C-alpha cells in the first residue's frame, strides 16, 4: 500500500492581482511548516448505554468560539481532524437530547485525544411548539404589536395557556402534546384576530402570523380637567370646547359643560393636536 501523503508546508495564498498588456507580476509566498502541528479529537457519543448516530459534535476554542463540527456515524463515533495545538471543549447534541456536558481537551502538536460524550434523552424536547408574531395593520402597513395577550386553546375550546407578545410582537408556546389547537390574540384598542388553528404532530413546530386591526370605537383617547375661577374655586355649569388644530386652523369638534365639581371630560378623542377653551355666561 502506498504511503499516505501529508502536507509538509501549509497552503498559503496571495492577494488578488490584475495583469494588463505586457505587464509582469512577481508574487512571492512564504509557506509555514505543518508537520506535527495538527491533532485529532475523536470519540463516541452515547446515551450512557447505546451509541447515538447522526449527533452533531462541535469543537469550541479556549474563548468559547465555534471552531469545527462533524456528525457521528452509525456507531456513534466521530473524528475531528486537523486541529491546531491549543485548549478546546467539545460537546454533542441531537434532536430529542440535551446538549452533553463539555469535555475539555488540550492538544500539543500532533496529539490524538479521545473524548467520549454522553447525551441525555429529554422527553419534553419531543413535544411541539407554536411560535408566531402579532402585527397590526394600519393603512396597508403591518407592524409588530407588543403587549398583546395571546391565548392557546385546545380542541374543546378550553384555554390551556396564555402569554403576551414582546417588543417585536413575538410569542411562543412550547412543550405541547400532539393535538389540534387554536390561538387567539386580543388587545385593548384593537379588534381581535380570528382564532388561528395549529396542529401539533410528532413534536412538530408551527409558525404563524396574527394580524389585528385598530378598533376605531375604542382606539382613542380622552381629554379631561377642572375649570376654576380666579379665586381657585371650581366653576360648575361652565361651557368647555374642544378644538382640533390642523394646519394652524382651529376647528371646534366637541362641547360639554362642567359638573358641580368643575370637572369636564371628552371621550372618543382621535389622534391629533387639540386645545381646550372655556367660558361662563351670566
UniProtKB/TrEMBL annotation:
Alphabetical list of SUPFAM superfamilies matching this protein: Cna protein B-type domain (SSF49478), Starch-binding domain-like (SSF49452)
Gene3D superfamilies documented for this protein: Carboxypeptidase-like, regulatory domain, Immunoglobulins
GO molecular function, one term: carboxypeptidase activity
Coiled-coil annotated residue ranges, if any: none
PANTHER family: COLOSSIN-B-RELATED (PTHR36108)
Pfam families: CarboxypepD_reg
Sequence similarity: Belongs to the serine-aspartate repeat-containing protein (SDr) family.
Superkingdom of source: Bacteria
Protein name from the UniProt record: Carboxypeptidase regulatory-like domain-containing protein
Source organism: Candidatus Flavonifractor merdigallinarum
Entry keyword set: Carboxypeptidase, Hydrolase, Protease, Secreted, Signal
